[in-house]
Structure formats: structure tokens, C-alpha cells
């Protein structure tokens, strides 16, 4: 048996190529090593948060508070370091713990008290924003004393050396090939549909080219940025969770039909609270990266990031009703959003237009997905 | 006298089942005509057809109104012709006032705005006609079930209904409210409004109907004039056929008691009234206990409660394999060795957008692990095994469940239940809406389960199925035990009488 590839499978890739092609022509510096390196950092931040968002959208919920949360968690860690003299690792661990507790509490409210996630997290958005400004006293506080660096500031300023980058990418590709071959053999042995050998080879070939292009480009600048490694790790973990654990299976089941999932013995409350708690941890990690990237915590950090995260999920084919969505799709969605934003900044597009273009792209993407799904 | 409304040799098919077969029915002007039959006899389908819910073209045969062919394209279309249905689940908007509900969809207007003066005035008139003494601006949420029903009827009158169709109108009413309703219908009869009255309750039917039509297995059995017949004749017509060879129940060799329920009382919610009263029974290994009763008797509620998915326990003890079983959650019930295949496949049974494999292993996935991760190979083998042994007709395990026929969907629901390796299996209407071939496979499966020493509780609305497949039969009546029968004692008449609460419990 063979599985067929459809236009829908490629629509994201094609959109991405179109966007990249447009900016490459309109703003030649788009393809410069320096810019693409910066783009991967921005992508890593958006995509990490979007992957966390996927965890709560899959069971049919939503989180509007992650943007405020990003600011708050970055702010708490910064204040602990600068005002209270904590070491950077302890500050981040402490702030991360706060995030886990807050998101666990929101998840519990949503599922135990049956209050819609939209409402609870809208409350969270406002409360976290206010708490954030209180914590930082509405000031701008640098993540590290001028001139030096700490674990926190290194989050977005550390790059793997070109040699290490090349080794890492090679290892990742080798891992992909091995996993792919093994999965193919197993699926074939079980009588499931597998791609044609040519198609499978083509997919790996394209992936290899992409990875090669990526590492050659970033190596012309300073190597692979640390946020990309963090994103890779988060993506791997979430891929394993969603596809290879009972917990992940339960997320899809709850989103597909919560009543049937409950009657099938799925521990619905525990699963949803777990998803929110994991999201809390990811919000903290994103908060540290975003604050470090800005160089300082300031009242606007994290603004409207929840919208980019949700948009990345939706563009990547995640259903807001739950039950449908993949890690790869979300990564593509985030890449599209990040490329758009980066390219428009290079073209010095007015901020007003940036908002409008992002909105139009989001709408178009969903409309296209609905159209293609109907075929 | 020409018929006001007539159905001539109507046949209605659904995928996999024929719900109505050459059904004929006529309603005379100013007549109250009762429609009787077991659950699933086709009454609801016939009503839906008469009221335009199944539009013209979705069935074969013809409808006539005043002697002229009638082709209702929608409910609104049927309403324009003077037909109005009062459904079991009342179709009122809780948050709106009585008057707003009365004119929902046909508001009195002055230009683009609602004409409130006319609305209040007309509402008062209509409420007076049904004898309901409430202010028109009362929110519907403040009314009881009986009053709501009167609002529904007033709403139908407001649409100039000439034919009222009432589906189990007294199911939720207190005795006094029933009397009010019956008086009102008699009053309508005097004014020439005809009425189709669907009810299980023969006492009411005999108190009010001019004629009675009995449906069975989607066919008209007989139409009787009330004065010339008796309740026992109607029951015989409803039950009818002999138990056929369709049900190859093997001789049972019951073992030890697997599930024991003592004096169980359950309410739907904390502080609510009891819906199950002092229910006691036991099921042995290798035995099929049938549970029957009319719609709303509490059969599904009983199973769902024992499985931890419904209600609050007011009292009683439940033991599974000698250990107490709390009604904690389905997950806990599954862990204790109890599994439920739900009656409502689409709502409680399946994740329709996911694959067959996903659904089959859903209840067992936490056990199919190696470390923290799902063991894909074990899962695939377990799925494949059930897929083959249940003979699910689909291209592969990765086929999306929503695309399967009813019978195959049911097999997936059963497969999911079996994979958990249960000791007690609850089957709630396992053959509803599936074709005969699939039914026989389900019966064979039940025999196989008991041969393996599992205890089976089978809820069914179909008496022949209940009598054919059960070793003992428990009949529920309004949340209470109406009777418990051995296979030898069970006759359709006795079971139906017990379901209607007409005889003291036997044996």
C-alpha cells in the first residue's frame, strides 16, 4: 500500500518558498548570513511558544495569557538576578517553577470548574501583565550588568562554533535517516501504508539540502545560535510526547471527542492540567529567550506573542476545535510568521502594515487549508 | 369522512436499516389517534416524516393533506400547512420569555422592530386557550415541565395548527399535569383540531384515543377503534412475532457472582431527585443478564453509573469480583475489570475523526507501553488481532472511523471494550442501527464472551433480542425494578407488562 501526496502536504512549503523568494528579490540582504542567523533566533522563540500552545489546542483549549506570561517570567528571572543577586541558573529555575504552578492552577480551574479556557486565560493575560509591571516596577532592567555576560544573557548570544555546528547537523541528519528507515521497515512489516521509496528518498534528500544550506549559512556568521538548539530539543520532546506517549494520545482523543474519551477511560482532568503545566514550563523558557534577545526586561516584552503562537499553530494546520495538529506543521507555521516579520522589517515596512499583512496571511492560510481539505 | 392527513405505503430507509416499510396511516378531522409500538417500531420516524423533518424525497410513498398530495420540504413547510409537533425534548429557549418563545421565528413586527404590544396581547390570548396562568414575560426557565409543554402547545396553536403531534407528552409529567393535558386535548377535539398521540402508556391511550394504530418493526400491524379493543389485544399486536432462530444463545454455565448490586439509588446530580430507586441484582461469570424497559426507565443510566460515568450515588453497595466498586470514573472501572460499550456510538463511543487503530487501543493504550512510550508494535498487533477477529470491513487500521458503516463502527466500539481484557462487559444497545448480518456477528460475540467466563449485561430495547440472548432478564420501570425473569419465565406479554409497571414483580 502507498500513501499519496497531495497539494495540501506541500502548501506550507510552497507558501514558505514564495515568501522567501519575494523577500530575497525585494531585499537582497534577506538572504545574508547575518540576517538569516537572526531570523533563526526569532523563529526559535516564536516556534517554541507555538509548540507549547499546540499542547493545549490539541485537547480543544486555548491560552491567551502566554504573551503576558513571557514578559512576567523573563521579568521575575531578571529581577532575581539584578536586584536580589541570585545566580542566573537559580533565577531561571525559580521563575520556571512559578510558571509551572501558575499554569497548573489555570488548567485546574478550566477543567475542574468548567470555566472556558478563553475566559481563564484572558484573566491570566491581564493579571500577568499587571504582575509583570509590578515586578519590574515598570522600569527597564538589563538581564546582566553592562559589559559582562551570564547564563541568562548567553541564551541568545551564544553560538555553537562552526565546527560543532557541522557535527551537530550531521548527527541530526544521521539520526533522521536511521529513524526513518526503521519506521519504514516496521510499518511495512505491519502492513501499513508507506511512502514510495523514491518519495521517501526525495523527502530525506530535500531535508538534507535544507540542513546543509542552514548550517553553511549560519556558519558564515557565527554558527548555530543556542535558541535553535533549544527549539530543536523542545520540538523533539513535544514530538515524542504527542506521538509516542499515552498522554499525547489522550490529548488527541480529548480534542476529537471529550465525552467518548472520558467513557473510554481517558483521565481527562489530569491530561488537560498536564498539558497546561507543560505549556507553563515552555512559557518560562520562551520568556527567558525573548527577554535575553531584547537584552533587558521592559514593559512591552511579550506583547501579542500569544497571537503569533496561535497563528503559527493555525497556519500549520492545527484545528482550534482540537484533535488535529502536528509538531512539523507548527514549525512551518512559525517559520512563515517569522519570515514575514523579518522580511518586512528589512523592507522598513510601517508597523501598521505589518499588522495588516500578518492578519491577511493568517486568514489566507486558514482559508486555503479549508479549501484544500474539502477536495 | 375524508382523511385530514393520510400516509400511503410509506417506506423510509436509513443506511443499513429500513425504518418504515409500506406504512399506511390516516387521521380524521377532530380525531385523537394514538400511535403505539415498542421502542424502535418506527413511531418516531413516522412522526418526523409527517412533520417535515424527513423532507419529501427522502422516503418512498405519499402523504395527503385534505385529500391532496402533500410534499413537505421542511418543518417550516409542514407548519405552514397546519402540522405541529410537540417533541419529547421540548424546543423552548430557556433564557427567553414565554411570549418570545411563543412567536420565535414569526415575531410580530412593526417595520424592522418587534411589536411588543401585539406580542403581549397575542401571548395572553394563546396562554388563555391552553389554560396556562402565567405572565407572558415570565422566563421559560422558571416554568416546570408541565407548563413548558403547555407553552409548546400554545406555540403550535399560534401557528394555526390543525394537527397536533405529541411525542410521549406525559413522559415527564406529574399525574395532575397529565389530567390537565388530556382535558385540553379533549377540548381541542371539540373544536376540530386533530391529534396524533404517541405514547407507551396504555392507560392514557385508552382514556383519550378514538383509534389506535400499532406499529411493529417499521410496519403497520393494525388500526383499532378504541371502544372495540382491549389493552391485551394492543400489547399482543405490539409484541407480535415469535422469537426466531436469529438468536443462537448457547446454554449458559453460570459460575461465581462477578457483579453484585444491592439497594442502589442514584440521582443525576447532587441534591437532585433519585432517578434509580433501590435496584438490586447480581450477574455471574458466563451469564448474560438482559436489562429491558421503556425509554427513560433508567437502563442506560444504570450502566453509566456503575461504570462511573453518570450520577451521584445516594445509597447502596456495588461489588465487582468481591471487592467494593466506587462510582469514581470510567478509568477506575476499567482498572477494576468493568467495561462499557455505549449506546450512543457517535457521542460516547468513538473519536470519529481518528483511525480505527486509534479508537481500538484508546482504552488500553496506557497498558501498551514500553517504559514511558507507547510500544507501537504491541499496539499494532493488538489492533490487528481485533480488526481481523471482528471482521471489520475497512481497507486498513488507518481508515478513519467516521467513514465506516454503523455495523463496522459498532465492531470498533466492541473491539475497544474487549481489548481492555474485562471480566464484566456492559453492552448498551449493541445492535442499534446496524444491519442483520452485523447483528448476528454481535450475538456470536456475546456467546463467545460468556464462553470465556465473562459476565455480560445486555441492555436492549428490542424484546426479541432481549429474550433471545439473555439468561435472565431484569425489567426496569421508572428507575425501579419492574420484574426479574428467568429465560423460561419470560414472555413478551410479561416483560412488557413489567416494563409498564402493570404487574407486581415476579420471581
Give a structural overview.
- The complex is a heterodimer of chains A (375) and B (507).
- Chain A has a two-stranded antiparallel sheet.
- Chain A is mainly alpha-helical and 375 residues long.
- Chain A is 76% helix and 1% strand.
- By secondary structure, chain B is α/β, with parallel strands linked by helices.
- Helices cover 32% and strands 27% of the residues of chain B.
- Chain B has 17 helices and 24 strands.
- Classes of the chains: A mainly alpha (375), B alpha/beta (507).
Task: Outline the fold blueprint.
The complex is a heterodimer of chains A (375) and B (507).
Chain A lengths: L6 H20 L6 H25 L8 H17 L5 H25 L4 H19 L5 E2 L8 H7 L4 H28 L7 H25 L4 H19 L1 H11 L1 H6 L4 H27 L1 E2 L7 H11 L11 H20 L4 H24 L1
Antiparallel strand pairs in A: 1-2
Helix pairs in contact in A: 1-14, 2-8, 2-9, 2-12, 2-13, 2-14, 3-4, 3-5, 3-12, 4-5, 4-12, 6-12, 7-8, 9-10, 10-12, 13-14, 13-15
Chain B lengths: L4 E10 L2 E11 L4 E5 L6 H8 L9 E6 L2 E3 L4 H6 L2 E4 L11 H5 L6 E2 L2 E2 L1 H14 L15 H14 L4 E5 L7 H16 L3 E5 L3 H7 L2 E6 L2 E7 L5 H9 L17 E11 L6 E11 L3 E6 L5 H8 L5 E9 L2 E2 L5 H6 L2 E4 L3 H5 L6 H6 L7 E2 L2 E2 L1 H14 L16 H14 L4 E5 L7 H16 L3 E5 L3 H7 L2 E6 L2 E7 L5 H8 L8
Parallel strand pairs in B: 3-10, 3-11, 6-9, 9-10, 15-22, 15-23, 18-21, 21-22
Antiparallel strand pairs in B: 1-2, 1-4, 4-5, 7-8, 11-12, 13-14, 13-16, 16-17, 19-20, 23-24
Helix pairs in contact in B: 4-5, 13-14
